[in-house]
Amino acid sequence: MNARVLLIVTSHARLGETGQPTGFWLEELAAPYRAFVEAGADVDIASPQGGKPPADPKSAQDPSGAVQAFLEDERAKAKLSSTLRIDGIAGDHDAYFVVGGHGVMWDLAEDAATARLLGRAFDQGKVVAAVCHGPGALVNARLASGEPLVKGRRVSAFSDEEEQAVGLADVVPFALESRLRSLGARYERGPVWKPFAVRDGRLVTGQNPASSALVAQETLAALAEQEPRESAR
């Protein structure tokens, strides 16, 4: 596959006022990275502040095969240690994939550069994807029409029930599922902690960390549908 994919991660390292560390979730970066690279895509990683972003320490516990492979991949680690700044991204990738982790709720959800990048990408016919808390980056993304990117579209994301289950419903700045619904998104979900992903055309979203590989597969499927159009230019 001749495609360029941008993985977007949070730069935020603190869980509200709790004093506890947070950041991006390793599985949600590692599984998609592996899927995209194995499919032949050229993968970049970006964050609001650039440089090395914070991984949630909890996500390094009992690592999956995808996480272990990522941490043993020197090229992958080099990209993660020197992420690109989102406000410097030219917008010439074919797909934009927002990695989750609670940190997203504090920076990517409010980052104007991220909102502009994702809204413009979708307007230009690119694929936009996000997993778990990653859809938090979509809440301020607007299309050229001024409408929310998610309005009227099927989406999934970390559910309010799951946020309650991890004891952080009163810590996060907003309830992600509820916010998406308020923007007119057609929210869908599966059982807690089980893989669940939704693809609505060029918008692909997933519910939780277990959904990471599935969202990547659906993103690749969406990219494959774009290839005939691209080659016809």
UniProtKB/TrEMBL annotation:
Domain DJ-1/PfpI: 27-219
UniProt keywords, alphabetically: Lyase, Stress response
Record has Aminoacyl-tRNA synthetase as a keyword: no
Domain of life: Bacteria
One example GO MF annotation: glyoxalase III activity
Disordered, as annotated region: 45-65
Pfam families per record: DJ-1_PfpI
Record's GO cellular component terms: cytoplasm
Family matches, as SUPFAM superfamilies: Class I glutamine amidotransferase-like
GO biological process assignments: methylglyoxal catabolic process to D-lactate via S-lactoyl-glutathione
CDD domains recorded: GATase1_Hsp31_like
Family: Belongs to the peptidase C56 family. HSP31-like subfamily.
PANTHER family hit by this protein: GLUTATHIONE-INDEPENDENT GLYOXALASE HSP31-RELATED, PROTEIN/NUCLEIC ACID DEGLYCASE DJ-1-RELATED
Record protein name field: DJ-1/PfpI domain-containing protein
Organism: Sorangium cellulosum (strain So ce56) (Polyangium cellulosum (strain So ce56))
